[in-house]
Amino acid sequence: MARFDVYPAPDGSYWLDCQSDLLADLNSRFIVPLRLHADVPGGDRRLNPVFAIHGTDYVMQTHLAAAISVKLLAKPTTSLVEHEYRIGSAIDMLTGSY
Hints:
Layout: E1 5-8, E2 14-17, E3 28-36, E4 50-53, E5 56-60, E6 66-69, E7 78-79, H1 84-95
Antiparallel strand pairs: 1-2, 1-7, 2-3, 3-5, 3-6, 4-5
């Protein structure tokens, strides 16, 4: 598991792993859901940035972040590590760390 890996969610959307790699030994991961952009129009793109995954746009639903069991994570489908700044900025906006 690596920070900013993208995993398939049971409902057909994705989960973005946002947990530090230094905490890899924990049995949970801090994730943010990624939903189809078509299903989540509008919104503040600083809090909810859009990313292309396999040619389809997904919205980072930062306000729905949660901890889940690592047992729920399958094989990652891609990584958004190249978007580290935008992802970090969205989390900072949610937590007031900006």
